[in-house]
Each structure stands twice: as C-alpha cells, then as structure tokens.
C-alpha cells in the first residue's frame, strides 16, 4: 500500500496539468509561473517551512515558487490569503489541485463551520467571533462581530483564506515559528493552531457576554430609574439574544468537526497532533454549554421583564379604576342635584349645601381608605 501511495504522489503532479486542460478540476485557468502572486493584495504571506523552521532565503515567494521549493527539498508551504477574488484564487486552486466546490466556498464565504475531505485535501471552515467593546449596552448595540477562516490542508501545504476585518493570523504564525518542534509535525500542526486560536477567541467572547448578561439581569430585577417604566429593557435583552444566537451559530456546528479530528484517524493529521485536537474539542464543548445557557437565561430574563411590564400595567389599571370609583361619588350626587327640579330635599334648608359637601367628602375618604388598605392605591 505504501508503494502505491508513493506512486500516486509521483504520478498526480504530472497528471494535473493535463487534467486542468481537460476541465477535470473545473473551469480554472492554469497557473502562470511568471505571475507575481505576492503583488496581489489577497496574498498576505507565503512561506516554506522545513524541519520546523521558516526558510528565509527568499522573500516575497509566489505560491508556485513555494511549491517548487517544497517538491525539491521537502517541508510544506503555508500560504495566507485575505478575501481573494475568483481571479486571484483561480491560479492557486489550479496549482494545488483544490476541488472546485471547496474553492467556491472559500471565495464566497458565509459558510457554516464544517470539515470536508476532497481526495488528499482537508477543507475546514471556522467562524471567528470578536467582542465589540461598548460604553453602554443599548437596543442597537452590536456585541459580537463574526468572520471566517477557511483552511485547505494537504500533505505538503496549508492554504488559509480569511474573510472579515478582524481575526488576523499573523500573530499565530509568528507564535508557531517559535515552536520548531510543533511546526515540524507539518500542516496538521498549523490546522490545530488555527482551531485552538479560534476556540480561545470563543472563550474570551463568552466571558465578555457573561458580563453583559449579568448587567442586564441586574437592571431588570432592580428598581427602575425615575422616569423609566417597567419593561423598558426588552429591546436590550432582545438585541443581546440576537448576538448570542449569532455566536451560537459559530460554535455549535464546529463541535462535530473537532470531534472527528480528535477521534477518527486521518492520513493528513499527525497522530501526535490528533491528541491536541481532543483538548480543543473539550474547550469547544464547554463554550457550547455556556452559549446554550446564555440563550436559556436570556429567555428567562425576557419573560421576567415582560411579566414585570404586565404587572405594572395591572397596577396602573387598578389605580385608574380606584380613582374612577372615588370620582363617581361627587359625580353622581352633583348629577342628581343638577336636574333643576322645583321640589327637591334640602333645597330650602340653610345647611343643606355644606351637609351635601361633607357627605361627599366623607364617602370619598372612606372609599380611598378602603382601596389603599387593599393595595389598590
């Protein structure tokens, strides 16, 4: 079997140009070695790593030059791109034999986190999440911002495609370059570092979201500020719930791919690196539990907020009803004495008017005291 794999590794590079011309890899143009790929704004970095060390003999390598050095002396190439267009990515896709479906996903983005295998290439999609600092949480505050990192992992190459203004992998690359022993494990070490970096970002965002949720919870169950009616926090709660839902869409689908990378043996993943994916999967599972808890807690807070608004409305209606009952007494008496009949009781009596007023005030006072004792006022 090992002889057959070695034969395939030798024959496939020779067959790829013919396959591209015949359209086996789709409608992508063949890679032009004279084209300066580093001049494109999409190529962020392109380097060759051998024995855990970055080869610094050449600067501004093109992807084609990087693969020539890998095929000549071993190691692997790591090519980083940021929001490439179809034209910018076509040559690289043809050079590395990337599957057209994976290339389409990488260019157009807005993909669900997933892990797919195309021949001798793993295609992994990560959703990056970043917390947006804000002075005060409002009904229109944007709390989390998402981006995407796609990773093509082969035997001798790693291609990362990043979408979004944040989530740069430059610091990650520099950190890996300081750990030659880990980087010597090959492309799967880079894949693990990216997964670990993304999940660490999830943990930081989850901690920040916990603070926002605690703040909203305190505001809901504390006495409202003067002039602020009960239930006025519903907009903030709903906005925070939408942000948590966006966070959940990034975290939940990624758990299964991480479990596959940690449990299922794969030719493209070094066995020593596979153990590290287990730790990433555990951290991701913890974050998923927190996000689900956030969603349930926000549901409870929203229901409590709406219940408080309903109670406040009922209290207002009881007060209105109570005052209407009190006002009904003088209204009824004055209505009776306003009928202008000639013969009515106490019309000719000197103390009739003060007596009626005293009676009205007495009845109103008794009603007010009864309602107040019963909690209606």
Verbal overview:
The chain is α+β, with helices and mostly antiparallel strands and 377 residues long. 58% of the residues lie in helices and 13% in strands. It has 10 helices and 7 strands. It has helices at 2-22, 63-73, 86-96, 100-108, 170-177, 180-183, 187-221, 234-263, 271-337, 352-373, and strands at residues 43-50, 53-54, 76-82, 114-118, 121-131, 144-153, 157-163. Strands 2-1-3-7-6-5-4 form a 7-stranded mixed β-sheet, sandwiched between helices. A hairpin with a 2-residue loop joins strand 1 and strand 2 (53-54). It is rod-shaped. Mean pLDDT is 82; it is low at 1-40.
Question: Topology of this protein?
Answer:
Layout: H1 2-22, E1 43-50, E2 53-54, H2 63-73, E3 76-82, H3 86-96, H4 100-108, E4 114-118, E5 121-131, E6 144-153, E7 157-163, H5 170-177, H6 180-183, H7 187-221, H8 234-263, H9 271-337, H10 352-373
Parallel strand pairs: 3-7
Antiparallel strand pairs: 1-2, 1-3, 4-5, 5-6, 6-7
Short description:
With 377 residues, the chain is an alpha+beta fold. It has ten helices and seven strands. Strand 4 and strand 5 form a beta hairpin.
Q: How many helices does DSSP assign?
A: 10
Helix content: 55-70%
Radius of gyration: 36 Å
Q: Strand order of the main beta sheet, please?
A: 2-1-3-7-6-5-4
Mean pLDDT: 82
Question: Count the strands?
Answer: 7
Q: Span between N and C termini?
A: 88 Å
Tag the structure with descriptive keywords.
10 helices; disordered N terminus; 13% strand; alpha+beta; 377 residues; 7 strands; seven-stranded mixed sheet; 58% helix; single chain; rod-shaped
């Amino acid at each position: 079997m090992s002889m057959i794999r070695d034969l395939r590794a030798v024959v496939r590079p020779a067959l790829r140009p013919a396959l591209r011309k015949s359209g086996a890899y789709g409608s992508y143009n063949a890679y032009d070695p004279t084209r300066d790929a580093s001049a494109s704004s999409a190529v962020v970095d392109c380097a060759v790593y051998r024995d855990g060390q970055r080869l610094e003999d050449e600067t501004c390598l093109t992807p084609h030059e990087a693969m020539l050095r890998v095929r000549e002396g071993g190691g692997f190439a790591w090519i980083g791109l940021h929001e490439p267009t179809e034209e910018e990515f076509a040559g690289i896709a043809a050079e590395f034999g990337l599957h057209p479906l994976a290339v389409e996903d990488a260019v157009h983005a807005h993909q669900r986190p997933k892990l797919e295998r195309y021949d001798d290439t793993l295609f992994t999609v990560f959703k990056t999440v970043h917390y947006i600092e804000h002075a005060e949480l409002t009904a229109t505050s944007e709390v989390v911002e998402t981006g995407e990192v796609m990773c093509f992992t082969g035997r001798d190459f790693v291609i990362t495609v990043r979408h979004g203004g944040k989530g740069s992998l430059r610091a990650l690359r520099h950190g890996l370059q300081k750990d030659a022993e880990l980087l010597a494990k090959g492309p799967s070490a880079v894949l693990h570092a990216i997964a670990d970096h993304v999940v660490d970002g999830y943990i930081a965002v989850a901690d920040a979201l916990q603070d926002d949720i605690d703040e909203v919870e305190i505001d809901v169950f504390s006495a409202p500020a003067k002039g602020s009616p009960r239930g006025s926090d519903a907009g903030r709660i709903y906005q925070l719930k939408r942000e948590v839902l966006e966070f959940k869409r990034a975290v939940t689908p990624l758990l299964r791919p991480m479990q596959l990378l940690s449990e299922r043996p794969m030719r493209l993943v070094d066995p020593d690196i596979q153990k590290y994916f287990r730790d990433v999967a555990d951290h991701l599972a913890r974050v998923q539990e927190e996000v689900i808890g956030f969603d349930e807690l926000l549901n409870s807070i929203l229901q409590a907020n709406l219940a408080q608004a309903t109670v406040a409305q009922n209290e207002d209606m009881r007060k209105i009803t109570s005052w209407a009952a009190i006002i009904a007494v003088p209204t009824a008496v004055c209505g009776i004495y306003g009928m202008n009949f000639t013969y009515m009781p106490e019309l000719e009596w000197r103390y009739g008017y003060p007596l009626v007023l005293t009676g009205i005030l007495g009845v109103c006072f008794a009603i007010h005291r009864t309602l107040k004792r019963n909690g209606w006022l």
